[in-house]
């Protein structure tokens, strides 16, 4: 029956039955032609009993109902109701909206209604449509299917070599498998909403996708979407098809995979992490045989791998890889990748030409950070030698082997909080299978985009399940040792704890990995539509305290660098960039009195950071008050929020914002010599390296890495991003003005700096900084008092003996067990007299006394008075004999 004929018949039937229908108890009024599909979806069907409708119309003189079907001929009647206490707790953001109860006689039709066009309407007594809105359905889908579906095994599952392919698509009318040029019908399980088909052994290695016939609100009609598998374990190039891939197939295991030897696990509180982009690592390394690829980490003789091994020997425990799952911003086939067609090296160091040329090909080149997920559980193909097949699986595993062999455990940066696309976009996978479910919708039904892309909704059962299942796969099948969650505050705390529980259940005997040794940390920022626990208890800094899952600590970072990442004037100074003690000429720094006060407050923030960000650690602040870490102010929030070391992750720089060297280039006085810039870099890194709890630094920061002042290099290409392991190649500074899109407002500040040859460090500064940094990581790794486990232990062992009204601006002195650490950020040699240690035998730590930095070796200690003397721009660690 055609749509036109069906509508005609429906209208005639409605007219003939109107009087009889009106006489029946609870009957709906006569039905007119259905409205066009609404642009907004302000009704939310949260369970089979309840609909919440923002701005719901007064039902007086008519009826409210859910209309399903192409003609709206299936109706579920709504009556005014209220949210139950459980519903209010589950949906706190909806408690102020009108609620309605689905007529009990109609509730059995819910599953059928959800598989078609669905609109909430108010109609007059004569059937005339008065108002209509679309309906959000994640809640009712979870109510109907969540408990059973959450136990389903999805994607390709193998049994003695035979695959079963399963996809959750409860709202689909039909789902078929397109495999190797033929179409195979799939069977629906009405209890779970899962469609599946059992295949033959010969299906292994074959490309496939699903043909899902479903009503798509974005299209306003029923469509048949040809979609790859959200649970895919293999892909063809550019994710055009999924591959039937058995990750347990011995042919996909590199030699020695089943007996891989990992470096010893360390507690998260002792982790020292290098954050690294796979392409950055080797693309400019002339000694690498596999530039820009996973296999670069198997090139043992390359400069990059030699440097990583050196870091591992001196205390670095983990390499954190920026996204390495399938992302959508890079063409995977090399013959489709563009490259700048300019002689970039020929332009002046302050030229606009480099960024202009790079920008022309940025959308089609081989570079992106990769925070734009398409398939969560398949390695990215552009890093493989061949993206079209299973090489990406084998080579990712070889990368893990290479890092483990270098003494480093592997962390993956994971991005489950958003997808590259939603709706009917060809790159949208989840939303074209279950439209309107996997993404977080605002009150009007639009997809939330506070994360910059289409926000997912891990609070929904099956999105939360996808997060857990995907991470377990990476842990078991790729032996990944840790995960860093992008924008973790957009996840429910319960979801991240479910991840922890699932990983903890993995054992070497059963799964080949020790899940309890896997570290977890993430960005616990609090913003967007979920801010302040608006929809659920978030995985934010304050909420994750005490869970053993760390969040990035921005308090000490800002104090060390100065200002914040988004200052209009990038010259705002901090502890390690000369505030008050070596001022630049920026009016943004305020008066001398302002600078002194701010510097002393920054020192309090750094002290809290050195404790591991502990909320309940008590000390004397720079105003002479006895305070807890939680009572020190950070832009209106508590500086200390951690319940134990390991809750807060310290860092001075990461891939976001300017590199540490570039931030210091802006902030230090222009006259500052490269040798002194290098010393301030080491001092800044020391505030994280010598803290309680885990610490992270961006790869290359020990080598004074620059991105030519680019504050957001996610799409800036190899020219601005590549790591330079050979100091003869420089550190990346002076490669032209950074790309205009994110930096043009800073060009007036950047241009004179980039043009100044005195700001470009040489080999002496680069290698010297790296060696001094490694001395600090060696001290941190070998002195057990840096790895205390509880607030009580830190309170007993760690103190700031000179903190108070008379403390020196620009110097922080920390006593830790048998150690005394002096961080002197001033340009001059300073003395720090700690009367409590007078008469005790202290000396410069042997690692520094025999170390690479000749300046720190001039530090001294006067036993009679307990006076420590430390050169300017130096961090010195003393130990009691």
UniProtKB/TrEMBL annotation:
Statement: the UniProt record of this protein carries the keyword Transit peptide: no
The keyword Signal is annotated on this UniProt entry: yes
Domain Pullulanase N2: 40-143
Domain Alpha-1,6-glucosidases pullulanase-type C-terminal stretches: 730-879
Keyword vocabulary terms for this entry: Signal
Pfam families (alphabetical): CBM_48 (PF02922), Pullul_strch_C (PF11852), Pullulanase_N2 (PF17967)
Signal peptide interval: 1-32
SUPFAM superfamilies: (Trans)glycosidases, E set domains, Glycosyl hydrolase domain
Residue span, Glycoside hydrolase family 13 N-terminal domain: 154-232
Region (Disordered): 56-75
Top-level taxon in the UniProt lineage: Bacteria
Family recorded in the similarity comment: Belongs to the glycosyl hydrolase 13 family.
Protein name: Pullulanase-type alpha-1,6-glucosidase
Species the sequence originates in: Streptomyces ochraceiscleroticus
Gene that this sequence comes from: pulA
